[in-house]
Design goal:
Elements lengths: L5 E3 L7 H7 L5 E7 L5 H8 L2 H4 L3 E7 L2 H10 L5 E4 H9 L5 E7 L12 E5 L15 E4 L4 H12 L8 E4 L5 H6 L5 E5 L2 H8 L4 E5 L8 E5 L1 H5 L2 H19 L4 H11 L4 H7 L11 H16 L16 H9 L12
Parallel strand pairs: 2-3, 7-8, 7-9
Antiparallel strand pairs: 1-3, 4-11, 5-11, 6-9, 6-10
Helix pairs in contact: 2-10, 2-11, 5-13, 10-14, 11-12
């Protein structure tokens, strides 16, 4: 549904004062983002010129799925990309060599579980009023996604197992249509798909949202060569992402941010605005981030998708974001502390 797009981050003519100050030190980077509101910090950094302002030239690539992002990173199509904690560990165990340097989406710094963006939406006449009612029902969900991990945890909490429901593997853009046509009794998705389902499928309803079952969080990462070959450029990227995230979080910018989102991905402004109530844009890295990462890996081991623990310290490198926080505390003043 979403089409891959390619953008130059900002033209020198658009910000001549920035070009004059940074041309000599600017580093060309390719940064990938997912085709959903989770990528708003990247989109805003490109559209508002935060990349160029902080001295780095960036091309933005958009992909539809996490697997496409990881494949592109492996193939060298881009230097940095995000990945959700709920499937990243398995890729790391299989040999993906990357370092997470800045928060992309999620509230992992504040707490190790954060999943309000995920919800269970029941179709009309499904008879589903609670998670327990899913027994014997068909549920549309994207296998391997954070939504899928959330569903398995929700079932466990309700005393059910994956064998009690018929999980139907559905790509995110198809979740609404499969619910609308009656192909499934319910779906588990994230924004904007939950909002879209509630708007387009008459009689649908939200049965459960969030619940701190998992961490719907992702960090921007690159292979060691991309991260460390020019640490000054990496620092500028982290600075730009942090400034853009602050801009996204500012309620005064909500309408503009939503407009920017519609220019990058196939969503209406109303859908982007609805998602802003649930997505979290916190670039920080801390002890809870490590806990969220290791908790996600524990779930993957429980599901037999990983064999052994992968230390968070071998993935997360907080030195860049710590430098940003020291030099620009104003970009983080609205955020809460770690719990």
């Amino acid at each position: 549904m979403f089409k891959s797009l390619r953008y130059l981050a900002i033209a020198a003519a658009a910000l001549p004062f920035v070009a004059t100050a940074n041309t000599a030190s600017a580093q060309d980077l390719v940064v990938a983002a997912a085709g959903n509101p989770g990528g708003l910090a990247v989109f805003v950094a490109q559209e508002k010129g935060f990349f160029a302002k902080n001295g780095v030239d960036v091309k933005v690539e958009i992909r539809n799925t996490g697997s496409e992002l990881s494949k592109g990173l492996r193939a060298g199509d881009f230097d940095f990309a995000p990945a959700a904690f709920t499937n990243l560990g398995a890729a790391l165990e299989r040999g993906l060599d990357v370092r997470g340097i800045v928060g992309y989406v999620g509230a992992a710094f504040e707490k190790s579980t954060s999943d309000a963006v995920v919800a269970l939406i029941a179709g009309p006449n499904s008879g589903i009023n609670s998670v327990a009612d899913l027994k014997g029902k068909k549920v549309g969900v994207t296998f391997g996604s954070t939504g899928d991990v959330w569903l398995l945890q929700a079932l466990k909490q309700a005393g059910l197992s994956s064998n009690d429901v018929d999980r139907v593997n559905t790509r995110p853009p198809g979740l609404v249509s499969v619910l609308d046509t009656g192909g499934v009794d319910a779906i588990v998705g994230w924004e904007p798909f939950n909002f879209r389902a509630l708007q387009k499928v008459a009689g649908s309803k939200e049965v459960k949202r969030g619940g701190d079952l998992v961490c719907f969080c992702a960090y921007l990462h690159g292979n060691p060569e991309s991260v460390y070959k020019d640490e000054a450029a990496t620092q500028k990227l982290v600075d730009a992402m942090s400034e853009a995230a602050a801009y996204v979080r500012n309620p005064a910018n909500k309408q503009e941010v939503a407009e920017i989102g519609t220019r990058f991905v196939n969503m209406t402004k109303e859908e982007v605005l609805a998602g802003l109530d649930f997505w979290v844009y916190d670039p920080r890295i801390g002890p809870n981030t490590s806990a969220a990462f290791e908790n996600a890996n524990a779930l993957l081991r429980e599901q037999k998708k990983m064999k052994k623990p992968f230390p968070a310290a071998d993935y997360l490198d907080s030195k860049f974001i710590e430098s940003t926080m020291k030099r620009h505390p104003e970009w983080f003043a609205d955020l809460g502390g770690a719990s």
